Amino acid sequence: MATNENRQRKASRYVVPVAVAGVAAATIGLVPALAASGDPDLPQITAQQLIEKIAASDTQTLSGTFRISTDLGLPSFAGLLSGAGAGAGSGASSADPADKLTQLVSGSHTLRLAADGPERQKLTLVDGSDEYSLIHNGDDVWAYDSKSNEVFHEKTDGGRGEKKGEKGVPGTPKELADEVLKAAGDTTSITVGGTAKVAGRDAYQLVIKPKQSGSTVESVKIAVDAGTGTPLKFTLNSVSGGKPVVDAGFTKIDFSKPDASAFAFKAPKGAKVTEGTEGAEGGEGGLAGDKGGAHDQLPKGLEGALGDFGLGGAAGADGKGGFNVIGEGWTTIAKLDSGAPAPKTDEAPKEVQGFLDALGDKVSGKFGSGTVFKTKIVNALMTDDGRVYVGAVTPQALVDAANAGK
CA 401, 402, 405, 406 torsion: positive or negative? Predict the structure, then answer.
């Protein structure tokens, strides 16, 4: 039923939260899968049939090992965090998922996963001899950081793995695939790009590419289990080349039901336990998530982009303290007018100034002058008079929008 599907989708946010820009998908190609040398020889299938296979997948139970690598093309955060004290003295728990899981937006990480329907999931982030575990079991979410021996506990909304007023972010390969496939239009090519072995399973490769020029997205690839229709791997590539922006997938997977003991948790002796704020409107004080409002009005291709640039306070889509939407599909741009001059980076602390200088390029044009802050996917142009243009588009596309006075 639709209700159960929604609950499963929301609950799965606790499995592998990652920060990526959402992308819109559209025209479904009819190119069948053709196996290359060394790849599994599977029956031919069209993109339409493969998407239907994903939609029909009803995987409720699994366990396995998951590997995620992210490369946003950002300079190192090390000096920035050191100079800022990395939140020292804030009183927050080191086990709070809102802070701990931000590690997944850079570098490579190994996780162990287990899931038993929408009510029970467990993630363990392995870092050498240290482990960080996040467990959702019915009405409770527990997080434990072995390095600090701290525990974070929070109640969920009716056992659905979601705080009231909070919106989840895509996490598992299936959720990432859902975000890509849930929109339709004429801006995208979707084909089947052969077959592959993923976590010892035979899989088809679904390939999504923009038809529009100006997007920073080169392709999205989703490896789909040939037997169950479960997405096993998600890869997001940038037009800038190099390593994938996101390469997230299983290295080992078992679809049998995990033992109930896998989701049981008791705070270790001597551990510091911090209780999260329950039912805060907009998700404040809880696990990381959208706070509603302007983000809900953004086109699918830009959901999460404002948050990535610290612009979560936009108030609406009317241009009055909020944002205007420019373009469509993969080249959508959000324009915000802060009404205030852009901050001067030379007035920032030394560590922050170095980070911003590495991240930004000075640009000028008919619009005046400003700075483009770059990643491999989401870019933002901040003009000196306080306008901000943000999108999963090239810096030149942002400059062109600003020059056009849009």
Answer: positive
Residue ranges making up the domain that contains 326:
294-403
Q: Are residues 335 and 261 in the same domain?
A: no
Range in 106-110, 141-145, 186-190, 338-342 with the lowest mean pLDDT: 338-342
pTM of the model: 0.71
Please report, for the domain that includes residue 91, its CATH number.
2.50.20.10
Residues 265 and 308 in one domain: no
| 21 to 51, 104, 151: CA distances (angstroms) | 21, 14, 30
> d(Cα 327, Cα 330) in Å, to the nearest integer?
9
102 within a domain of the structure (yes/no): yes
Q: Measured in whole angstroms, how far is the alpha carbon of residue 65 from the centre of its chain?
A: 19
In this structure, of 183-192, 248-257, 276-285, 362-371, the range with the lowest mean pLDDT score is 276-285
User: By the 8 A CB rule, do 44 and 33 touch?
Assistant: yes
Domains of the chain: total: 2
Assess if residue 288 is contained within a domain.
Answer: no
In 10 A of CB 245, how many CB atoms?
25
In this predicted structure, what is the pLDDT of residue 173? Answer: 63
Question: For residue 178, what pLDDT is reported?
Answer: 62
pLDDT averaged over the chain?
74
Q: What is the pLDDT of residues 26-85, one digit of tens each?
A: 333 344 554 455 688 999 998 888 988 888 888 999 999 999 999 988 765 444 444 444
| Residues 218 and 258 reside in one and the same domain | yes
What is the model's pLDDT at position 359?
A: 65
Which residues in 149-173 are b (16+ Cβ under 10 Å) and which e?
Answer: ebbbbbbbeebbbbbebbbbbbbbb
247, 315: one domain:
no
